[in-house]
Write a structure and sequence with these properties.
It contains four helices and two strands, in the order ββαααα. It is of the alpha+beta class and 99 residues long. It starts with 20 loop residues before the first strand and ends in an 18-residue tail after the last helix.
């Protein structure tokens, strides 16, 4: 796998071109983050962030990659998904958190 691929800042795995991916606003757009910093993530990692935290929690306490990585549920997810191939995707279990 080429080493010039972008790296997902959440799980640390490369993001190959065929992988499902998306941009995450570190401060949610609905909470003042429109035009603010974004990071490219695997779609599965992005889904897990939004399944775990509300927009308010993201804006208030989890608006950096290091804060996201330190969250207990996300840390457990990172340990699990880190063993999967870079292009891996599956449905995120459970309902999406409210905004």
């Amino acid at each position: 796998m080429p080493s010039d691929l972008p790296i997902c800042p959440l799980c640390g795995r490369p993001i190959p071109p065929e992988a499902r991916q998306s941009l995450h606003h570190l401060t949610p757009r609905l909470r003042g983050g429109k035009g603010g910093p974004t990071v490219l993530l695997h779609q599965i990692c992005h889904n897990e962030i939004h399944a775990t935290l509300t927009e308010t929690e993201l804006a208030r306490d989890y608006n950096t990659v290091s804060a996201l990585r330190a969250h207990p549920r996300l840390a457990k997810f990172i340990g699990w998904v880190g063993k999967r191939p870079p292009g891996f995707h599956s449905k995120t279990p459970g309902p999406r958190r409210r905004r």
